[in-house]
Design a protein that fits this description.
The protein is an alpha/beta fold and 453 residues long. The chain has 17 helices and 13 strands. The strands form three sheets. A five-stranded mixed beta sheet has the order 1-2-4-3-5, sandwiched between helices. A five-stranded parallel beta sheet has the order 7-6-11-12-13, sandwiched between helices. Strands 8-9-10 form a three-stranded antiparallel beta sheet, with no helix packed on it. Helix 5 links the parallel strand 3 and strand 4. The structure holds NADPH dihydro-nicotinamide-adenine-dinucleotide phosphate and (2Z)-2-iminopentanedioic acid. The site of (2Z)-2-iminopentanedioic acid has 12 residues, from strand 3, helix 5 and helix 15.
């Protein structure tokens, strides 16, 4: 790495020790930026990189709530307002016991460039809490969400910062969060996205991340004179992104053979068809069960318990043509990448945020695998959030068809942009470089235009 880029990496490691995920996200970004920085003296002069790694604002707060036994529980809440060069802060809220400042900052950093790639006026942010929704009653979820929003509401607003869902935040949580925001502020505005279409939400927002991921994968295969038709696919996770990835893959004629949760994965060699997917949606979204139950209903499928001891994730060792990691960060290690390439995987498209380690990406790319990085591949979700904001501002609701057409247009445009930038900056076919460079240049130029703020 050149001196300027390596000094930024050292700075972030020195000044934010212990933030491993944030270091990783910055490192992956700098590997791409390093290739072009010599041609960008104005970006160096205006210290854009130094400013990008420092959130504009970070709010950390206490969330007291009372459980069903009447006992006070305490969690920690976060909102990282990373960058507002292109628009109001925008990004999801994650509820998961692993949430800490490092995870919030990596997600907010990625979000900044992802939002830039959508072509919409969206800055980058992320928030959440180390609250674990698993095993909690509806009443506990509601009381937690109300307490979380009581503090968060001071920092957000339809023109300031617009949260949405992420891991552990779906339609139920968004409802409770919105209800409390409305009550505190006495206003019905589009301050959260992913709302129910009954009360201000956009059609296709729940589907958008998974559908968009598959649209982008289809565009990549199209460039290689290929299609998803008949392809065997591995999908990880079994939440929002995974479910709608499977749905769109079925639409495209592909065969999905895996799903997972943090306890393990299922392998169904016959493929997950529409009926089985409907069962998974019911199991995960309504019964809030575990994916292991799939094998009790569909006896020919096998279940594989997640084990860190073996050093790889069984899910990525099944033979397939395409892989869609849709669970969480760092779920494809270097060994998983080797297992995928050993089975001659053709395409990996990231539905989750930063699901592949830096070495994993390098191994896949060196083997000639078509690789779509998260900040481009999963941008469909936030893109439709942007469309929900537009609908809220105009007090209108678009049809599902209109939203889906716009989603397809945006994913096609993202694919075009990242391919063009990769080629223009000497990395033809390297969509990680294409996404990082295209996302970065737009944010950087906006920051320079707006002065030292
Ligand atoms: P959900 O909460 O709906 O589902 C998450 C899924 O991932 C569950 O199956 C969960 O299993 C699994 N998972 C979560 N944490 C871990 C972990 N530490 N180890 C193994 N598995 C885990 O979340 P989403 O589907 O919304 O989000 C999935 C990914 O997609 C995340 O990386 C998120 O940031 C990203 N994303 C989401 C968008 C959205 O619109 N929702 C948009 C863009 C990206 P378990 O039940 O066991 O926890
Ligand atoms: O990671 C993401 O892009 C999201 N969780 C969705 C963000 C949004 O504002 O819709």
């Amino acid at each position: 790495m050149r001196e300027i880029t390596s000094s930024i990496l050292q700075k972030v490691r020195r000044e934010d020790p212990g933030q491993a995920e944030f270091h990783q996200a910055v490192h992956e970004f700098l590997i791409s930026v390093d290739k072009i920085i010599d041609d960008l003296p104005h970006i160096v002069y205006h210290k854009v990189l130094e400013r990008l790694i420092e959130p504009e604002r970070t709010v950390i707060f206490r969330i007291p709530w009372v459980d069903d036994d009447g006992i006070l529980q305490l969690n920690r809440g976060y909102r990282v307002q990373m960058n507002s060069a292109l628009g109001p802060y925008k990004g999801g809220l994650r509820l998961h016991p692993s949430v800490d400042l490092s995870i919030m900052k990596f997600l907010a950093f990625e979000q900044t460039f992802k939002n830039s790639l959508t072509g919409l006026q969206l800055g980058g942010g992320k928030g959440g809490s180390n609250f674990d929704p698993k095993g909690k009653s509806d009443g506990e979820i509601m009381r937690f969400c109300q307490s979380f929003m009581t503090e968060l509401s001071r920092h957000i607003g339809a023109d300031t910062d617009i949260p949405a869902g992420d891991i552990g935040v779906g339609s139920r949580e968004t409802g409770y969060l919105f209800g409390q925001y409305k009550r505190l502020r006495n206003e019905f505005t589009g301050t959260l996205t992913g709302k129910s279409p009954l009360w201000g939400g956009s059609y296709i927002r729940p589907e958008a991340t998974g559908y968009g991921l598959v649209y982008l994968a289809a565009a990549m295969l199209h460039d290689a004179d290929d299609t998803l038709e008949g392809k065997t696919c591995l999908v990880s996770g079994s939440g929002n992104v995974a479910q709608y990835t499977v749905e769109k893959l079925i639409d495209m004629g592909a065969k999905v053979v895996t799903l997972s949760d943090s306890s393990g994965c299922i392998h169904d060699p016959d493929g997950i068809d529409r009926e089985k997917l409907a069962y998974v949606k019911q199991l995960k979204n309504v019964s809030r069960g575990r994916i292991a139950a799939y094998t009790q209903k569909y006896r020919h499928a096998t279940y594989h318990v997640a084990s860190t001891a073996q050093g790889f994730n069984t899910l990525w060792s099944f033979p397939a043509d395409c892989a869609f990691p849709c669970a969480t960060q760092n779920e494809i290690s270097d060994q998983d990448a080797r297992n995928l390439t050993a089975n001659k995987i053709k395409l990996v498209a990231e539905g989750a945020n930063m699901p592949t380690t830096i070495d994993g990406i390098r191994i896949l790319q060196e083997s000639g695998v078509l690789f779509a990085p998260a900040k481009a591949a999963n941008a469909g979700g936030v893109a439709v959030s942007g469309l929900e904001m537009a609908q809220n501002s105009s007090r209108l609701q678009w049809t599902a068809e209109k939203v889906d057409q716009n989603l397809q247009r945006i994913m096609k445009q993202i694919h075009g942009t990242i391919s063009t930038y990769a080629e223009r900056y000497g990395s033809k076919g390297n969509l990680v470089d294409g996404a990082n460079i295209a996302g970065f240049l737009k944010v950087a130029n906006a920051m320079i235009d707006q002065g030292y703020v």
